[in-house]
Design brief:
By secondary structure, the chain is α+β, with helices and mostly antiparallel strands. Helices cover 40% and strands 21% of the residues. It has five helices and eight strands. β6 and β7 form a beta hairpin.
């Protein structure tokens, strides 16, 4: 299965070596204290913790199933998957971390997570999300034209108009159509109000001439 790997955020080689060295020193001191009959458990525990931190590698994979956070230490991996069906919103921010793109996903309950990808990965991620969940809200601020098969585009004005309405669409297509209807209705109301205002301002000159009576 095709996967997109998010940019890995790690401590860097120098910091990793420093933390690892401190961890080894703490473990050595703890082991020495224990062998001498003293209390070295605290140093030993601290050393193990620092070693784990030094070799901890967070990873995020994205595919047609969803977003998978992978926690890896010494080759032991733990997966935490957010499926697209569980996600209500996905946003691509092209400005915050250039040249990377920050992808943020959100669940209906409000839980969020974000990760960095390359600009050329955004189209594929959006397609996977739309294919798996036809109710997911997809947004981006990039100066590019992203086409999602089977989806109708909506600008900010249309989205805000939809948010202020009472309709409850079943999917994104209905969402976009309802937004346009609300926008058209508002424009008609404004146009009608302007027309009535113009009629009120118009004055009609009364004809003072009287018809001559028949003889």
């Amino acid at each position: 299965m095709k996967k997109i790997h998010a940019k890995v955020k790690n401590n860097g080689k120098v910091l990793t070596l420093v933390i690892g060295a401190i961890g080894l020193m703490a473990m050595y001191k703890g082991a020495t204290a224990l062998s001498d009959g003293g209390s070295g458990l605290l140093y030993l525990a601290l050393g193990i913790l620092l070693i784990l931190v030094a070799f901890y590698r967070p990873m995020t994979d994205i595919d047609r199933e969803g977003v998978d956070d992978i926690f890896s230490v010494f080759g032991v991996k733990k997966h935490t998957v957010w499926k697209w069906k569980e996600i209500s919103r996905i946003v691509a921010d092209f400005d915050r971390a250039k040249p990377d793109v920050v992808i943020a996903v959100q669940k209906p309950q409000g839980a969020k997570k974000s990760f960095n990808v390359l600009p050329e990965d955004v189209q594929q991620i959006f397609e996977w999300a739309a294919m798996a969940n036809d109710r997911i809200l997809i947004q981006h601020n990039g100066d590019i034209d992203i086409d999602i098969p089977g989806r109708t585009k909506m600008n900010r004005e249309e989205y805000e108009a939809m948010q202020s309405g009472n309709a409850k669409p079943q999917n994104f297509h209905q969402f976009a159509n309802e937004a346009r209807k609300i926008k058209e209705e508002k424009e008609q109301i404004v146009a009608e109000a302007r027309r009535k205002k113009m009629l009120k301002k118009a004055t009609f000159k009364r004809n003072e001439k009287k018809l001559k009576s028949w003889r």
